[in-house]
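Q: what does this look like with magnesium ion bound?
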Amino acid sequence: MNLLIMGLPGAGKGTQAAKIVGKFDVVHISTGDMFRAAMANQTEMGLLAKSYIDKGDLVPDEVTNGIVKERLAQDDIKGKGFLLDGYPRTIEQAYALDDTLKNLGIQLEGVINIDIDPTKLVERLSGRIIHRETGETFHKVFNPPAEGYDEKDYYQREDDKPESVKRRLEVNIAQGQPIIDHYRAANLVHDIEGDQDIEVVFADIEKVLSKLQ
Ligand code: AP5
Ligand code: MG
């Protein structure tokens, strides 16, 4: 299957993507994860991305389009399909993705749109913790790791600080509608209620993907 997962920052894209790849064996491509890996390795692209990401701004389209195009052209994608998380995030990126997929002879099959009231998201992001060793995402209150966990084994994302969160939400709300409209016009969008327990959200996504498979 060739899929997108969309939703505002903190909607649960990464949480659900981890569950989807566990069950449906598609390749998870998260542009945010790719940028964070480049930042950790202090590559030229990572340093450039950091100057945008820490403030909550979008990395310029030409950079983001380039890394996605390169990743989609790799061999594993034709065999397994993909689940793109966090891309496209501007309408120009959506057009670039259309072109890339057309050139590769790949058809987009569905867009999972996790719908959630933005007022819920600050709490989600401020409580997010990530396991240092596995990279797995948890939440201090909504999805805590095992009881008695050691806080030192977890970290918080730089861009989950209040100033960056405010900017991320503004930017993503402003850019999101034309992208969803673009995919609605192609009849690809499946809306999922995001303000439910993680397992319930996943059950709703599973229903959609089982039909698409
Ligand atoms: P990215 O990493 O994609 O961040 P984001 O879109 O802001 O989304 P998040 O990863 O913060 O949230 P999520 O929806 O994955 O939520 P999660 O599952 O973790 O991008 C980061 C930055 O990189 C961007 O700001 C930009 O600068 C740059 N970038 C990336 N892509 C780009 C692009 N295409 N173009 C330009 N720039 C780009 O869940 C959040 C928390 O909530 C967790 O703690 C989780 O445990 C909890 N939670 C999840 N689901 C539930 C639930 N149902 N109930 C209760 N809690 C829940
Ligand atoms: Mg994420």
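The pocket of BIS(adenosine)-5'-pentaphosphate (ligand 1) is lined by residues 7, 9-15, 31-32, 35, 52-53, 56-59, 64, 86-87, 89, 93, 124-125, 127-128, 137-139, 142-143, 159, 168, 196-198, 201 (CB under 6 Å). The chain is about 50% helix and 15% strand.
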